[in-house]
Every structure is written in C-alpha cells, then in structure tokens.
Design a protein that fits this description.
single chain; 10 helices; about 375 residues; 3-stranded antiparallel beta sheet; Glycosyltransferase; globular; about 35% helix; alpha+beta; two-stranded antiparallel ribbon
Length: about 375
Amino acid sequence: MMKYLKTGFILSFLSIVYPMAGQLPGQLLEKPKEWYGSEEAIRIADKVLLFQRYDGGWPKEWPIKKDYLREYSDSEIERLYDLKYKRDCTFDNGATWTEMRFLGKVANATKNAEYLLAFNHGFDFLIESQYENGGWPQYYPGLERYSPGFSKWSPDGIESFITFNDDAMIGVIWLLKDISEGKSDFSFVGSDRRKRAAEAVRKGIDCILNSQFIYDGKRTAWPSQMDERTFEPRWGRDFEPLSLVSGESVKIVRFLMSLEKPDEAVISAIQGAVQWLVDVKIEGIRIEQTKEPVKIGGHTDRRERYVVEDPNAPPIWARFYELNSFRPIFASRGSEVKYNLSEISPERRTGYSWYRTSPAKLLHDDYPAWCDRYDVENVVE
C-alpha cells in the first residue's frame, strides 16, 4: 500500500460531494414510481424538453444555466428555442444520460407521446454518437466554438476524446444496458431499439476492456480520458492531467460486476482494477476544510482545505494517479503536475474534488459479494 505524506503539507477536505454542473439533480431520479406521473414531474419534464437540442442530446451548462427546478420567463424560453440548433450535446457531468433517465420514467408513467418521442430521439442520438470501437466522445457532434476544455497538452480541445472522467461514458453505457434489458423504467422501448442498445453495450464493453491501462503486464485502472483512435491516455482540461482515475474506475468495475455470466476477460479486468485500488490506497491522513468560507478570486463561498496526518483515519484515494508511478497528482490551471495538494493554486485546491472514498465500499462489500456469487478468488487482503 502507498503512503504519500509530507509534514507541513498545506492540507484539505472532508468528505464533500460537489454537484456537477449540467447534471439533472439526483433526487429527481429517486422518487417513488407513482410520482413520475404527477403534475410536478410533468412540469419538470417540460423544462427538460426545453433544453433538448435538435440533434437529440442535451448541452452541459451554457449559454443558459440548466435548472429544472425553477420557472423560466417567456423571453428565456424563446431564447432556449433559439439555441436548439446548437451542436453542443455532451455526456459530461451527467448531461444527456441523466435527462434521458428522467424522461424515461415520466414517459413510462404518463405514456405521453411528446415524452416518448423525445426519449426515442435521445436514444437515437446515443447510438449515432458511439464510435465504431465502442467508445463515446465527450461532445457530439462537436462544438461550434473553441473548446471549453482545451489545455496546452490538447490544443485542439477534448471534445472527441473517449471520456471516463465524471462518469461520462459509463453513464451512457449503463443507461443503454438498462434499456436493452427492458428494466421497468424503459418497458415502453420497442424491441428494435432494445436490440440496438444491446449491440451498443457489447461494443462498449469491448472498449472498456481495451482501454484498461496495463503496466508491467498487469491490468490496473482506467484513464481519465483517452484518444478516440489509439486509446492512449490524454490530458483533459489544464487541471486534469494525464492520469488514471480512482472514483471513475470504481464505477467501471461496478458496471462490469453487473454483467451476468462474466467471461475471463471481464473477470481479469475486475481483478486487476481491484488489486490496483488496494495498492494505491492512501492511509494515515484525513482531509479537512475550514469552517468559515473565504474569498478566492471571484468566489466568496470557498473553504480552504487541509490534509492532516491521522494514523486512525480510514483509507482514501486520490482522484488522479500518475501513469506508471501511480503517485497522486494535482494541477492548477497552468497544466503543471504537482505531487502535493498544497502546491496547487487556492482556486483549484478549493474548487475541485481531489480525493475519493468510494473505493472503500467496493473493496469491502460489493466486490467480495461478487466473488462469492461467481466463485472468484478475492484478491483483497
């Protein structure tokens, strides 16, 4: 197991979950089944339709902020219709696949033709946007302006990269898996689309297996994003370095563990990723933040973060790990990799989630249960 501690490290973090810009609020996907036929659900669904582009998907967060829980003025609604032509659909930060999950629930409850058609249009968009190698780009068909996510390492932008960061690809493939299996929310989907969903999932699984990072002959985790042709890991935004990711790899492992009758390739991928998560866990520290908000740049509600040495603290994981060395890495907007959280700018230190706790439940609960189910060796000590 790895320990990366430095005395005097300027430190941070409690177990904080940051809402992702552009994502439909998670609570809207967790209501009782009967709620999705209610007037409130229908009002929200109508707002979701306002943001759907003519291409079939949904944008992230611009030029009008998505907030499905508020009312929009007539002028805002007119502006949203004017923006429907924009080719800025994305899967980043939950965009498109969370809207489709919500629309599926409402369409299933109401049988309203407008919602059914919108869902089907979104489904066709998902199928069209998949690469032949099984991956999905971060944006499709592409932005009509310079990328919001360019870095000096990716001067042409990151829209076409196959993206695991923020669960972009895994959110899409898991939605399609649920559709292909006729899960209750999607019982209205016809057999033809269910077959197309199953084929897309098959190709997506191949992409996941082919993109797992192999070091010294061993399978490890998955990159944050990768080249759509060569599968080589790539930089994202300036503060998203070339790396393997812990939290998103957990989601990928969970998806692979959801597959019935996993073959040797799937089992090997799961075992390799789990062993890597065990190897890179960080012990002996806890992450705290100041109680009072501080002003950093144009933000007035930030809280400084501190890493505190604590031998009794439960293990945590860095968000990003350097390729080959597997050291935790951090970065500011200047695209320079640092090895201590204290070395990056206050703006990035307080404005981004740099640590993860999600591997703990996977390692201690879900993975052992999967091993028992399929009589697979448990590699966790």
